[in-house]
Please model this.
Amino acid sequence: MKVEHTPCYILHRRDYRESSLILEVLSREHGRVSLVAKGAKRNKKRQGINYNLYQEYLMSWVSKSELGTLVDVELATIMNSICPKQMMTGFYMNEIILRLLHKHESHPELFDSYKSTIEELSKNNTEQVLIRYFEKTLLQTLGYGLVFDQDLNTGDHIIAEVDYYYKLNFGPTSNSQDNRVGIPVSGSTLIGLNNETLVDAKNKNEAKILLRSLLNQYLGEKPLASRVLYQEYIKNKQAV
Model:
């Protein structure tokens, strides 16, 4: 198979032999793919290409197996400038994609969400809300059946003033008997998540707890390296 100049982001890179790199890539049309960039560290043929994370590229490759070979790459946009804190958020996004997304499954809507989130992070916009919307898109894209707009016990639309309990693998219910098995969440938070209009600090915190719980059941028990790294970053900032 040969792919010509398709939009891509590099999720992870590692050294391969003396002068090459193995790239884990999120492409818009072909999903997650692994590519070898031969001679990338010598950087003679592709001046100005540093294979940076959080930068959109147009990539061409050929593949006869699970590992494709990069044959051309160019910048798709001007270089993004992301500060260290936003990089921590980007690292988290990359890690959960690598943990949850199967290779060679096309998810254009996930790519578009990733791209818009990276672009907003590069503008130093508030990442807490941005990452909630990205997490929601990722879970929905992978078919995990999130419900934020309906009480699944009654069939009624979610009411902002009502408190609910979100049962994993089911959805929200206002039935107080579900308080031991469900995650407490207000109707206003569910509506904010559904419409991507989270504003209030309480809603943002509830959305974080809910989406983290939903993600954790699919991520498994292995800790996320990005969360550990972020905690170390915050600790070092406080120590200065």
